[in-house]
């Protein structure tokens, strides 16, 4: 209630003030129109007396001031015209000083002073000095601030600057600088003193009001920056030291933050670069609560943009040692501001790092130095809990990746992994994903085992369980995505030198073994294929190379591959291991290493026998074994017979008859390889096909017993297609009469009452007959072969 009363009262006082100004303005206008100087001075003094109030807040006082300001502009026009009032400007300057109250007197004096300077009857510097000194008479913060703001306003275009019409004899630029600096200093003192003007309970409101008036003070710095005569030398020796002295001595948080920001924004970047030491030297002397991280970040941002504007500026940055000065200043500020939260310190280093990456991208030592400073801040503290600080550390670590587009450069930074160690487990993994994405996006090959070691140390959050997080706690989808990213990464690790490539594979193997069984199904396959790629590059190098301790030979790599795939037994993942063993067997086949290939097949059969129990998995596995074995050409007769015998034996032992049938007719390909030197054993092919027919027949009868119908004849049609394949390939055992018998058998089956020829098997058989008909009509040698078959 009290607050609303206060607001109402203030509105009432403002209305009274405005009414007073309007009342006196009416008589002032009448006096001006009748060229009556005495009356004009009398009513203008009364009008300005309304500004003597102490009842209004700065916001309301500003409204009142603007009303008076408009009238003063009109009065100034009257004072300029000597013909109208008949009084010389010198006499007028004396006359207005007889006003009864100090505030109206000084407003009138500033107004006449402005006309006095314009008349050039006295040097501008003398009038300005007189005015700035006289304004000291008003020490009430609000009234004094607005009075001095008026002085700054009327004098800004009348400063004795170089090239200005008011430039006098001697060093007048310094007089202009001195006038603005003095006005600035006095205004700042008044502004700072405002905080003590009201009751303590309204401190927050007072601070807000003070903040609204900050531009009145800051305008002086803007005027200083606009003075043509203020070159680097004057700025360095006169302007900056005086301004900084005032900022440091005022010991006020709001003023210090705002004015430091003003300096950075209004003066040229070139000046900042050349006076960096002086400017930065003031930072540790400021109040501990001043938000220096924002001030310094803006300074570094401006300097970065300045450096980017022209490559020729780089020597200047090196000459003034900008990086080391900024780095030292940040260190001192962090020391001075004991209570600065960790996020503030890291934000400063993020800004310094982006400055370094933009200005000195080639200086990796600088980048590492910044990261080292962060390690120093973070060390001794527990893992980061503060999400804002964590975000800043991620920004710090991401900056070099974005800049260099090359993870290899980041890998040379010794402090990079040390900063990562301070992240909590979750963020560590996010950062690891950022690193992997950067590598994948830029297709950067990591080409030495040492760099791979550093890289895997960086992404260890994805490769093994960190403290506090186990694989069981993770979301399945996220876990799969992370591990697939690691798998992709493995294909980017590459070196043309086989020796180094083998070292890389061993390094990766060492790291993924520490990751626990859940990760192995994702990480083992890419590693196996990476090793097989190396094997194919080394084909033909079977023996040891003389003079080398650890030569990278296929045999040696296959030994390693055996260990790698064996590690899947702890998962367990027998189906995956079987596939990988068969891939390795193919690799050994290409390298002409019969014992190694045989060993891999043996391992695959052992897995099939002992580990793969599911009937569907068995079907898939036996077909993979048959397919791989068919392509092998390294085996001698004895080994091939052993493996073929195993494969056909397991085929016939599958659980379901249709699966048995299909696996057995697939085995027929093991005895007929359609290559120049391939095995072509027609009798054993026929044996397989006959055996599959018997199984198909048994399956048909079993279906008849259990369902009362013999089921579709698809299996017979499939076997017929195999017969046709070998018939065309020239197997002497497969004759037209054998095929004729099979066609008749299928037709009989399809016509029998118990058969339920499904639409799929009917279409399949029709299509097969159509193919035979097509071959017959085609003529030539093939047409003759097909001729005896009657459809």
TrEMBL record:
Subcellular location(s) per record: Cytoplasm; Endosome membrane; Golgi apparatus, trans-Golgi network membrane; Prevacuolar compartment membrane
Topology with respect to the bilayer: Peripheral membrane protein
Annotated Gene Ontology cellular component terms: cytosol; endosome membrane; Golgi apparatus; late endosome; retromer, cargo-selective complex
Superkingdom per UniProt: Eukaryota
GO biological process: intracellular protein transport; retrograde transport, endosome to Golgi
InterPro entries: ARM-type_fold, Vps35, Vps35_C
Gene3D superfamilies assigned to the protein according to its UniProt record, in alphabetical order: Vacuolar protein sorting-associated protein 35, helical subcomplex Vps35-C
Major subcellular location class: cytoplasm
Keywords: Cytoplasm, Endosome, Golgi apparatus, Membrane, Protein transport, Transport
Family: Belongs to the VPS35 family.
Role of this protein: Plays a role in vesicular protein sorting.
Annotated protein name in UniProt: Vacuolar protein sorting-associated protein 35
Organism this protein belongs to: Sesamum indicum
